[in-house]
């Protein structure tokens, strides 16, 4: 077989990149979508109101490049100075900019394994090496100070972790931040779903080397809006500003994110509902012999009892129009399915489909 000749017009690191594969978004009617950790409940009605009030004529004007109104409100929410907040086009943009800003040319980053599979792609795009620190068999983190290559300048820590849902102990994270000479990025995409509140914003704001990332995509029910943000020292946040597109968050997104923030109770009530459903579904799966990783997130990471396999169940559920996530590429994740928590009705249909044939 001939090896394909790479197109010399394309940068080698880009041509050889194994791009991140996002969960599918099929347009099938009646599909129960439990594959991308979206919120099954709509955003606050204030978002719909604000959308109705959008003045199309205003779109001829550029948006506020620094998202000041949004940062002011986020500063109140987290009790931090708005000058220490950076808003991005989804937290994926924040992660991409952070990867560039906090690594050196041909440098080194690290993460736990398994964790969010976008991080290695972001590093590969920057020609940065990625070290993967294996988590314990139960996906907990035992050694607070993982052994890292000496030139590691950025560590991605997802808390609660994805795709496992495990929440790490605060003392371990604080000890790691204190001992690690590089930048510790705490990705709190799912932090609003923990049983007791978890927020590293104030910690990051006070530390020289911690960046705390959040998103509107999960608890705020706004994955389609593309808005995320990070909190950190003025230096770290300043570096993200240096790199960003001038107008990275459009006018409509800024307005609607602000409307969502005016109704924190709505978000918290939905997160509480999701927690209750999570507890119920986890108990039922355990009863049926599944291994259920303790989740503090809006998804469950579960291993079916033999002879069932994750791949087999994934395919069977798909035939029944129920979409969950399977990560077959790594031996750590292949035996598991990640199931986003939907409404109670959706989860009942999921449980019913699992019990059939
Ligand atoms: N971090 C983690 C751990 C995630 O799972 C996701 C969602 N795939 C993101 C960040 C990205 O979220 P956003 O929609 O804000 O880009």
Describe the secondary-structure layout:
Blueprint: H1 12-15, E1 32-33, H2 45-52, H3 68-78, E2 85-88, H4 91-101, E3 108-113, H5 118-125, E4 129-134, E5 152-158, H6 170-179, E6 183-187, H7 201-206, E7 210-215, E8 228-231, H8 234-243, H9 251-261, H10 264-287, E9 291-292, E10 299-303, H11 310-319, E11 322-323, E12 337-340, H12 344-355
Parallel strand pairs: 1-11, 3-4, 3-5, 5-6, 6-7
Antiparallel strand pairs: 2-8, 7-8, 9-10, 10-12
The site of 4'-deoxy-4'-aminopyridoxal-5'-phosphate has 12 residues, from helix 4.
What does the model show?
This protein is α/β, with parallel strands linked by helices and 357 residues long. The chain folds into two domains: 12-43 and 265-356, Aspartate Aminotransferase, domain 1 (Alpha-Beta Complex); 45-264, Aspartate Aminotransferase, domain 2. The chain is built from twelve helices and twelve strands. Helix 2 (45-52) runs antiparallel to helix 9. The protein is globular, with a radius of gyration of 21 Å. The termini are far apart. 4'-deoxy-4'-aminopyridoxal-5'-phosphate (PMP) is lined by residues 90-92, 116, 158, 162, 187, 189, 215, 217, 223, 228.
Identify the CATH architecture of the largest domain. Answer: 3-Layer(aba) Sandwich
* Count of the domains: 2
State the shape.
Answer: globular
Mean pLDDT: 96
Ligands present: 4'-deoxy-4'-aminopyridoxal-5'-phosphate
Low-confidence stretches: none
The name of the CATH topology of the largest domain is Aspartate Aminotransferase, domain 2
Structural class: alpha/beta
Question: Can you list the strand order of the major beta sheet?
Answer: 2-8-7-6-5-3-4
- Output the radius of gyration: 21 Å
Helix proportion of residues, in percent?
25-40%
């Amino acid at each position: 077989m001939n090896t394909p000749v790479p197109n010399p017009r394309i940068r080698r690191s880009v041509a050889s990149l194994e791009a991140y594969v996002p969960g599918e978004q099929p347009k099938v009617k009646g599909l129960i979508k439990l594959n991308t950790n979206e919120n099954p409940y709509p955003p606050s009605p204030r978002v719909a109101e604000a959308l109705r009030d959008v003045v199309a004529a205003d779109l001829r004007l550029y948006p506020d490049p620094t998202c000041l109104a949004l940062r002011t409100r986020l500063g109140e929410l987290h009790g931090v100075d708005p000058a220490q907040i950076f808003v991005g086009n989804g937290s994926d943009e924040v992660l991409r900019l952070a990867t560039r800003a906090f690594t050196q040319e041909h440098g080194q980053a690290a993460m736990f394994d398994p964790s969010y599979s976008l991080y290695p792609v972001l590093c590969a795009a920057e020609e940065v090496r990625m070290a993967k620190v294996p988590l314990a068999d139960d996906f907990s983190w035992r050694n607070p100070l993982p052994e890292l290559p000496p030139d590691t300048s950025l560590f991605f820590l997802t808390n609660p972790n994805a795709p496992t849902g495990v929440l790490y102990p605060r003392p371990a994270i604080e000890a790691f931040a204190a001992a690690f000479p590089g930048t510790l990025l705490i990705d709190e995409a799912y932090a609003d779903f923990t049983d007791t509140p978890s927020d590293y914003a104030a910690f990051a704001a006070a530390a020289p080397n911690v960046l705390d990332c959040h998103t509107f995509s999960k608890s705020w029910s706004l994955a389609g809006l593309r808005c995320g943000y990070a909190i950190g020292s003025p230096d770290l946040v300043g570096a993200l500003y240096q790199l960003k597109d001038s107008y990275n968050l459009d006018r409509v997104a800024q307005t609607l994110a602000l409307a969502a923030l005016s109704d924190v109770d709505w978000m918290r009530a939905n997160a509480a509902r999701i927690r209750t459903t999570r507890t119920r579904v986890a108990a039922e799966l355990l009863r049926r012999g599944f291994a259920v990783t303790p989740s503090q997130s809006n998804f469950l990471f579960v291993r079916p009892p033999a002879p069932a396999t994750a791949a087999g169940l994934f395919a069977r559920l798909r035939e029944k129009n129920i979409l969950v996530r399977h990560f077959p590429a790594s031996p750590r994740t292949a035996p598991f399915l990640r199931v986003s928590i939907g409404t109670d009705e959706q989860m009942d249909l999921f449980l019913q489909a699992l019990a059939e044939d």
